[in-house]
Amino acid sequence: MRGILTKGIMLCIFVAALVCAAGSAGHAADTVKIGVLDPRSGQNEPFGRTWFAALQFAADEQNAKGGLLGRKVELIAEDGESKPDVATRKARKLILENKVNFLTGGQLSPVAIALARVATSSKVLYFNYSGMADEIQGKEFTPYAFRVCQNHYQQFTSLIMLLAKTPYRKIYSLQPDYLAGHSQDKDLREELPKYIPDGKVVGSDFHPFATRDFAPYISKVIASGADVIVSGTFGSDLINLIRQARSMGLKAPFPIFAPLGLHPYSIGELKDAAVGMYYTSEYLLNVNTPENQEFIKRYHDKHKDDKDFLTQWPFSDPAMAILGWKMTFAAVEKAGSLDPEKIIAAYEGFEWKSPVGMWTMRKCDHQVLLPMYGGSIAAGPNPYYTFPWEGSKVEEFPADKVSLPATKEYNPRCP
User: Fold this and answer.
1) How many CB atoms lie within 10 A of CB 161?
2) DSSP of 358-375, one letter per residue?
3) Which of 24, 143, 327, 413 is deepest in the core (most CB within 10 A)?
4) Which residues of 143-254 form beta strands (DSSP E)?
5) Going by DSSP bridges, is the β-strand pair 357-361/368-369 parallel, antiparallel, or unpaired?
6) pLDDT per position in the chain (415 positions), as tens?
7) Cα–Cα distance measured from residue 49 to residue 41, given in angstroms and rounded to the nearest whole number
8) Structure pTM?
9) Which residues lie below 8 Å from residue 74, measured CB to CB, with a gap of 6+?
10) Distance CA 360, CA 143 (A)
């Protein structure tokens, strides 16, 4: 009798285990997990903070529609620390332990490249809304990665087209000393003669990441006779650059063309010292379309009571993440599957109407093609922040004018 009871108990335990396992599998099947790897500490933490708020907004709106293919979208975040080795380790953890369906984030280009390599080895799709070096979709191309934001060519070509509308012709190139900075300097030099034949780069430098003392660089700018600085730096580096430039005699509105500078973290610190800074971006709050105004309202209605002013408006950086993922959700819905190969097939050549124009995913390099917008920081009141912000005048640059040529030299897959 005791043996029979023991066998019966064991059978019940086994059946219960099967039921629990089935329940867990069912729960997992009802969820689409996205592994997020942005900086959540250090000097780049403000960027990670605004991006996560953006991703949560995109996920919440998708879930309000019934989810993705009927499954709830869930974000699982890890601190990538802006370091390729850390991001690689944590991406593997997200894939192996958290069983994420997709990877996203990255911020710096070397981190984006590292995440694309992890995605390739794991056959998991990676969607990049922040790493912008041209090489990511060029020589570092993998079919398992899509860039759903602007690249440096788009940024700097539109920036030069914006510069062409001003009287400034003597340019000093000051870039961060890593892959992205060298890519930016290359694009500046190659595109400048096409749009400003009388423009000249009178000097150039590359500064280390997290530079505190820009005085040696600014002294060279002054000695060169430059009438404008073009810089791809951002965050605390940009704050230090502009503050020290102003203190050394390059007073506002001395122009600094810094496409990555349009972040309230930077402008809020600089205040009036930021006036005279020009920028280009795939998204501006002042792009005046009904769709954009409605998008801004939806986001602000959700975040207007945030104590953190960085998350109150969908400025350029969070908008890149929101719109990039909305396009991605639409492509996955077109695929009708979470299978990476089916999504790749559906996304290549995919067109999506964003609130700021038509976006197209180029087939050969998985780079989104989109219109770019430019303007300058204006003093005085604005509808968004208590410090100077986007000027009301917006210049538009069509997608076909600012897209990186699809050559075999850039990416062998391209025609």
Assistant:
1) 20
2) EEEE-TTT-BEE--EEEE
3) 327
4) 145-147, 170-176, 200-207, 228-230
5) antiparallel
6) 445 444 444 444 443 443 343 333 333 569 999 999 999 999 899 999 999 999 999 999 999 999 999 999 999 999 999 999 999 999 999 999 999 999 999 989 999 999 999 999 999 999 999 999 999 999 999 999 999 999 999 999 999 999 999 999 999 999 999 888 998 899 999 999 999 999 999 999 999 999 999 999 999 999 999 999 999 999 999 999 999 999 999 999 999 999 989 999 999 999 999 998 999 999 999 999 999 999 999 999 999 999 999 999 999 999 999 999 999 999 999 999 999 999 999 999 999 999 999 999 999 999 999 999 999 999 989 999 999 999 999 999 999 999 999 999 999 999 8
7) 9
8) 0.91
9) 31, 32, 33, 34, 59
10) 16
Asked if residue 364 lies in contact with residue 414, where contact means CB atoms within 8 angstroms, the answer is yes
* Alpha carbons 70 and 29: distance in angstroms, whole number: 10
Joined tokens for residue 393: 């005048």
Please, are residues 191 and 154 in contact by the beta-carbon 8 Å criterion? no
| Domain ranges, ordered by start, for the chain | 153-281
Query: What residue type is 107 in one-letter code?
Result: Q
CATH architecture of 153-281: 3-Layer(aba) Sandwich (3.40)
